[in-house]
Amino acid sequence: MVRAPCCEKTGLKRGPWTQEEDDILVDYINKNGGPGNWRSLPKLAGMSWL
């Protein structure tokens, strides 16, 4: 039996955040607090391109 993939990885960007991305994430956390699931943070912060 093969395990189904957990998420779509096409176009997945790996590596460190750019300064712009980092600023967006820090701003979101300062306004809303940290999410329960850190993997969902970029999407919650409006970074749908990730």
UniProtKB/TrEMBL annotation:
Main location (coarse class): nucleus
Localization (cell): Nucleus
HTH myb-type domain boundaries: 9-50
Transmembrane spans: none
All residue ranges annotated as the Myb-like domain in the record: 9-43
Keyword Nucleotidyltransferase included in the entry's annotation: no
UniProt KW keywords: DNA-binding, Homeobox, Nucleus
Name of the protein in question: Homeodomain-like protein
The organism of origin for this protein: Artemisia annua (Sweet wormwood)
